[in-house]
Structure prediction request, 112 residues.
Amino acid sequence: MARVTRALALLVLGLFALLAAPSFTALRAEAAPKKKEKAPWVGPKKGSWVKILRPESYWYQTRGQVVNVNQKAEVKYPVTVKFDRVNFSNVNTNGFALWEVIEAPAPGPGEV
Prediction:
């Protein structure tokens, strides 16, 4: 009888310990890593107008609209710019480095 009582007491204590312990899911949720903050935006905003400063470019000192700005540091020409006219190869987009473009005002009506 004493062995049964002792076994029953151990069983009750074991069940109580399981109920009192936090669940595995709760432990995993508490240990979830925090998300990294986004890095600040580098370069002109998408859709803004820029003036080209690369002297050997067909579009030197003309304005174009920013199509995309790649945020990876290893990209050599991260700023993709679209122009209203085409060059000799019938192309109207080109990639530029961050230092080869400056923000410019948008063209007015009738101005291209």
About this structure: Strands lie at 49-52, 63-69, 79-82, 93-96, 101-103. Helices lie at 2-20, 24-30.
